[in-house]
Structure formats: structure tokens, C-alpha cells
Amino acid sequence: MFTEEEIRRVSALLSALGNPTRFKIVMLVSETRRPLHIKAIAEMLKGDYAAIYRHVKVLEGSGLIGIYEVGRSRVLYPKDEDTIRLILEFVEKVIRK
Q: Among residues of the chain, what percentage have pLDDT more than 90?
């Protein structure tokens, strides 16, 4: 069986991915081989920077993506590429059923 901590980690991850905007952010970050500025993601998703930043903080808390600062910009990168790849493969299978 799973420990309480493991259950909490998985729950946080699934909760983070349960929002369409956050799922799109994970896909964008995973599709590129270079880090992305939050501002660029907000423009791609036609969203407000502040709202996208709140979504990014949830994703950071789930351990999927990381954030670092370059000057005054915040840049995203895939923190757990293996888990992201497995999630996207699972989603692909579910969609293609």
C-alpha cells in the first residue's frame, strides 16, 4: 500500500493537472527544449500574466516544473521530465481509445 505522504504527493500532482490551463502549461514546457518565460506562455495561451503565474505556482508545488529568475523574468523548465513524459503518454492512450 501507499504511505500517507505518497498519497498526498500523487493527489497534489493530479489536482495540478486537473485544470486545463495548467495542463496546457505542462505541455508547452515539455514540448520545447529551451526554458520558457512565463510572459511568453501567457501570450501563447492568451491569458493574463498574473493568472498564469498562479497556475505556474501550483505546478511548481506539484514538482512537475521549476522556476528560476533571469533578471526580472521568471523562466519555466520541466523539473520532472520522466513523470511528464509518462503522464503525456497516458493521456495519449486515453484520448486515442
A: 86
